[in-house]
Write a structure and sequence with these properties.
about 290 residues, two-stranded parallel sheet, about 15% strand, NAD(P)-bd_dom_sf
C-alpha cells in the first residue's frame, strides 16, 4: 500500500501557515512545507499553532514536529524547486509513498486600475510568482503524485473511516479524499467570463493563467493517473492576509474571512470533489468559477 503525504508551498504566513497547522492537527500524515527564510522559526510556529487549540486530546509537540519537514523553496528560483522535490523524494520514496494533497499557494498582488499604472517589473514579478511559480511546482512535484498502478487501498480505507489517530476534539478530523488532489490558489478575478469591473491587469492575467495550466495539468493526470489524482484551481474568497490588507476596509465583514475559516472551507471543497471535478476552478462555497 502506498503511503500518502502532504505538500504545502509556501507555509510561512497567511493561508499556507493556517493550512499546515490545521493539517498537522487534523491528520497524522507527514507534511513537507516550504518557506524562503527562518525555516526553524516557521516549523516552531506551525507546531505551536497546531497544538494551541487542541483540548480533549492533547497533541504531542514532539510527534507533530517529527512529521513536519520545512525546507527552502523560492518559486522564482527553479533550482530551489528542483532541490526541494529531490528532498521530498528522499523523505517519501515514490516506491512506497505518493503525494496525496498538494497545495500550491504562492501569490502577490499589484492592483493596477488603469493601463498607465502598469509597471513592467511589477507585472513580470506577478506573472512569475502567481503563474510560472505554480507551473514549476507542477513540473517538479507532479511526478510524486500517484500513477495508474499505485496501490491506493490505504487511502481508500482512510477515506471511508477517517484517520482514527487524528484529533477530533473540535470536530476537525479531516478525511482524505480517495484520490490525490493538486490544488493551486486562484481567484475569481481570473475568470474572463466573469470580469465585470476591469482593472487589476497583471493579477487577473496571472490567475487566468493559473486556471489554464490547472486544466492542462489535470488532462495530463487523467492520462497518467487514471482517476488516482486530479488538479483543481481554487478561489478562497477575500482572506484577511497581508495580500489583501489594502482592501480590508472595502469588504463587508461577513465576506472578509479569517485564514482559519478559509482553510476549513478549502478542505471541505477538497474532500467533496470527485475525479470528474478536476481541471476546474472552485470557490469556497463549492461552486464552479466560470472560465
Amino acid at each position: 500500500m502506498s503511503k500518502p503525504w502532504i505538500f504545502i508551498s509556501p507555509a510561512n504566513r497567511g493561508i499556507g501557515h493556517a493550512l499546515a497547522a490545521h493539517l498537522l492537527r487534523s491528520t497524522t500524515l507527514p507534511i513537507l512545507a516550504t518557506a524562503r527564510s527562518d525555516l526553524a522559526g516557521v516549523k516552531e510556529s506551525l507546531v505551536a499553532a497546531s497544538t494551541a487549540t487542541a483540548s480533549a486530546n492533547p497533541r504531542s509537540r514532539e510527534a507533530d514536529a517529527s512529521r513536519l519537514h520545512v525546507t527552502y523553496l523560492d518559486v522564482a528560483d527553479e533550482s530551489s524547486i528542483e532541490a526541494a522535490s529531490q528532498m521530498a523524494a528522499s523523505l517519501f520514496p515514490p516506491s512506497s509513498h505518493h503525494l496525496h494533497l498538494a497545495f500550491a499557494l504562492p501569490g502577490i498582488l499589484h492592483p493596477e486600475k488603469q493601463p498607465r499604472r502598469i509597471a513592467y517589473d511589477a507585472a513580470l514579478a506577478t506573472l512569475q510568482t502567481n503563474t510560472l511559480g505554480p507551473l514549476m511546482l507542477m513540473k517538479w512535484f507532479g511526478e510524486l503524485l500517484p500513477r495508474k498502478g499505485t496501490d491506493m487501498s490505504y487511502v481508500k480505507a482512510q477515506a471511508s473511516g477517517g484517520d482514527a489517530d487524528a484529533d477530533d476534539s473540535l470536530g476537525q478530523r479531516f478525511r482524505l479524499p480517495a484520490h490525490a488532489t493538486w490544488l493551486t490558489n486562484s481567484a475569481r478575478v481570473g475568470s474572463t467570463g466573469d470580469n465585470r469591473l476591469g482593472g487589476w491587469y497583471s493579477y487577473r492575467a496571472s490567475k487566468a493563467g493559473v486556471n489554464s495550466i490547472t486544466k492542462t495539468f489535470d488532462l495530463h493526470l487523467r492520462a497518467r493517473s487514471a482517476g488516482n489524482a486530479v488538479a483543481v484551481a481554487y478561489h478562497p474568497g477575500t482572506v484577511k492576509t497581508g495580500l489583501s490588507r489594502e482592501f480590508w476596509g472595502r469588504v463587508a465583514e461577513d465576506k472578509l474571512f479569517s485564514p482559519e475559516f478559509a482553510v476549513r472551507k478549502m478542505l471541505e471543497v477538497v474532500a467533496s470533489r470527485t475525479a470528474r471535478d478536476g481541471g476546474k476552478c472552485w470557490d469556497w462555497r463549492g461552486q464552479e468559477v466560470p472560465p
